[in-house]
Amino acid sequence: MRSRISALSQIKIDTLVNMIKMSYSFEDWNEAISLSESLLELAHLTKEPEKRFSCLDSMEKPPVYYFGYSYLMKGLALQKLRAYSESKECVNRYSDLSWVEDSSEESQYYIDKFKVFAKVNALTLDILSGNKEKLPEYLHVLMDNGDEIIPGLITIIESALAHDFNVDTEIEKLTPYIAKYKHQNRPVRISYYLTVHYLLALYYYKNRQYADAITYTLHNITLSDKLRNDKFFKKSITLFEFLKTYAIDSQTAEYSRILNSIFKGEIENEESFDFNCIARCSQ
User: What is the rounded CA–CA span in Å between residue 27 and residue 17?
Assistant: First the structure.
C-alpha cells in the first residue's frame, strides 16, 4: 500500500483528473475506474495535513471536489459497463459530501453541485434499467439543469434502444439543445457531443427512419474529423457503410464530398505533394 501511495504521490492530482477525462472520452471504462480509484486515494492524502505530498501542491480546487469527482467518474464508468448497482453505490457517496468536513464557501459550492449530479444520475440509473415511468420526472430535472441535457438525452436513447420503447417526444424536446451545447474542446463534453449524434442515428435506423439516420451519421463523420476523434470517425464511417443501401443520391453525393474534402486536407499536409496533379491525372 505504501509503495502505491508513493507512486501516486508523484502524479499531480489535477493531472490525474485530466487523465480520467481522457480515458472517459476514449470510452476506456476500466481505465477510468482505475484512475478514479487512484484519485480517491490521493484525495484521502489531503486529510493528512501533518504530511506534505508534492502531488497536492497547487491544487486547483478544494479537497471535496476530488472526492466527489472520483466517485462521480467511477460511477459513470460503471454505468457504461451496466454495473448499475455498483454505480448506485458511487452515487450515494457523492450525493452528500458533507462528510469531507470542509466548511469553506467554495467547498459548499461543490457539495451542492455534486448533490445535483447525484439526483440526475440516480434517475439516470432508473431510466437505464428500463423504468420508463420515470421519464417525465427525468425530463423535468434535465430541463432545470442545462449542462445535463445532452448526457440525459444520451441516457434516454440508450434506454430506448436497450428496452425497445419509443422516445420520439423526449427527443423532440431535447434535440434543440444540441446546437447550443458548448464542448469547448473538453474531452468529456466532446465525447457527449459525438455520442448523442451517433445514438440518434442508431435510434432512427432502428425505427426505419433511414433519411434521419443517414443525416446524423454524415454530420458525425464531419464532426468527428473536425474534432480529431478517430474512434467516432471510424464508428460513423462504418455506420454509413451499413446504411448506404438506404441513402438517396444526394446523401451518397454528400458522403463522397465529405471524404474527398478530408482526403484533400490530409494530402495537402504532406510535404512536396501536389494534390492538383493527382486530380488532373485521374481525369
Answer: 15
Which triple of cell numbers denotes residue 139?
425530463
Rg (CA), the chain: 22
Q: What are phi and psi of 47, to 5 degrees?
A: -90, 10
- If we measure between CA atoms, which residue out of 64, 66, 63, 62 comes closest to residue 98? 64
Q: Are 267 and 278 in contact (CB under 8 A)?
A: yes
Spatial contact of 24 and 67, defined as CB atoms under 8 Å apart: no
Q: What share of the chain is helix, strand, coil (3-state, %, to 5)?
A: 75, 0, 25
Percent of the chain scored above 70 by pLDDT?
86
For residue 107, give Cα distances in angstroms to 99, 101, 111, 114.
Answer: 12, 9, 6, 11
Per-residue CA distances from 241 to 77, 107, 192, 208, 247 (Å):
29, 49, 23, 16, 10
Residues 236 and 20: their CA atoms lie apart, in Å, by 24
Cβ 177 vs Cβ 149: under 8 Å: yes
If you search the block for the grid coordinates 459548499, which residue do you land on?
Answer: 108
Q: How many CB atoms lie within 10 A of CB 72?
A: 21
Identify the band that residue 262 occupies on the pLDDT scale cut at 50, 70 and 90.
Answer: confident
Give how far Cα 183 sits from Cα of 180, 188, 190, 193, Å. 10, 8, 5, 7
Contact 193, 220 (CB under 8 A): no
Give the pLDDT confidence of 89-128 residue by residue, as tens digits: 999 999 999 888 777 899 999 999 999 999 999 999 999 9
Question: Residue 107: which H helix or E strand, with range?
Answer: helix 105-128
